[in-house]
Amino acid sequence: MPELGTPEGWLPVVFLALMGVAILAYVVLDGFDLGVGILLRAAPEGDRDLMVASIGPFWDANETWLVLGVGILLVAFPLAHGQILGALYLPVALMLIGLSLRGVAFEFRVKARAEHKPAWDFAFFGGSLLASVAQGVMLGLTIVGFRHDAATWAFALFIGAGLAAGYALLGATWLVMKTHGALQLAAVRWAQQAKWLTGAGIGAVSLATPLVSERIAGKWFSLPEFFMLLPIPLATLLLFFILWRALARLPQRLADGNEYGAWVPFACAVGIFICAFYGLAYSLFPYLVVDRTTIWDAASAPESLMIILVGACVVLPVILAYTVFAWRVFGGKARLLSYG
Questions:
Q1: What 3-state DSSP class applies to 4?
Q2: Can you tell me the distance from the alpha carbon of 226 to that of 42, in angstroms, rounded to the nearest whole number?
Q3: Which residues fall within 8 angstroms of residue 230, CB to CB, at 6 or more apart?
Q4: pLDDT (tens digit, 9 = 90+) per residue, 240-267?
Q5: For 40-149, where are the alpha helices, taking DSSP H only?
Q6: pLDDT over 70 (residue 110)
Q7: Residue 155 burial by Cβ neighbours in a 10 Å radius (0-12, 13-18, 19+)
Q8: φ and ψ at 281, to 5 degrees?
Q9: What domains sit in the chain, N to C, each tagged with a CATH number?
Q10: CA 86 from chain center: how many Å?
Q11: Are 196 and 172 in contact (CB under 8 A)?
């Protein structure tokens, strides 16, 4: 490990932080629109246009964060980029197919003839589910160090289901905040159902990470680190409790026309993802490939990283500004999209 006071030491840490921010932003922002896509088939046909309209101004820009995160991995950590994407070529390919399918379906479903619209709705649902499960499988395989056997694939598939449920939780709580009436009440029920598998997926990741690596187990269960890190799982449990309470109280409140607290479930779901991401990032640091490749082993030359950092300092604020602008302009309840 180089000295952190030198460019060889601090530049990889900076780029790891930038990549982490990009991935977390993608998971949260694209997570809710993937979740809406997953829930599309559960809704009556009359509500699907409003569901899609609720994510219409956001979904395309949300995927910019994925491009940024993978781009940083490619240019800042080329060695790890080859190792990671080489080991994950199948779920990566399936994710790209899913994202492409939902992108095409999003555009075509609005302009399709009435008899073709259900097929495009199914394509949007299928693409969203495929991309979500593929991302979860990628996470599961990363945690186990890219081992490929029956047990690790079973674990990865379970994490895929858990992440899809987590996205469905984000999507359902987003709809609670952005819609009204029968669809809003249905979204409360969907969130109540999705939270259980989401919690199981987070629990599985939390149990597996210290089991696959003695180094990770030492980081969490040695003293005094154990007590210093205890607020992370406690905060996650507290957020699940608040989420459960909010979802239990909302149906009666919404039936009375009271929107107070409709934002709380979405805020809790986002908080849960942030806590889970922070815990996983702490476990893996400073490795990009578990116990094999550190960020310093995989990093580009300091001169290259310095040039790339200048570009990142330009691109990242632009993406942030656009995201904030979109949320300000399209805040409030969703309205049906109109195409002339």
A1: coil
A2: 42
A3: none
A4: 999 999 999 999 888 878 888 899 999 9
A5: 45-55, 59-62, 64-76, 78-87, 89-111, 117-143
A6: yes
A7: buried
A8: -60, -40
A9: 7-323 (1.20.1630)
A10: 22
A11: no
State how far the Cα of 105 lies from the Cα of 29, in Å rounded to an integer. Answer: 19
Per-state percent for the chain, helix, strand, coil, to nearest 5: 80, 0, 15
User: Which amino acid type is present at position 149?
Assistant: D
How far apart are the C-alpha atoms of 295 and 238, rounded to whole Å?
Answer: 33
Question: Burial letters for 321-331: b for 16+ Cβ neighbours within 10 Å, e otherwise?
Answer: eebeeeeeeee
Between CA 59 and CA 62 the distance in angstroms is 5
Look at phi and psi of residue 290 and say left if phi exceeds 0, alpha if psi is from -120 to 50, else beta.
Answer: beta
Residue carrying structure tokens 């979904």: 59
**Could you say which DSSP state residue 215 is in?**
H
61 — pLDDT class (breaks 50, 70, 90): confident
Helix (H, G, I), strand (E, B) or coil at 151: helix
Q: Which pLDDT belongs to residue 107? A: 83
* Angle between the N-to-C axes of helices 78-87 and 64-76, in degrees from 0 to 180, rounded to the nearest 10: 120
Quote the pTM value.
0.93
Among the ranges given (55-69, 125-139, 259-273), the one the predictor scored with the smallest mean pLDDT: 55-69
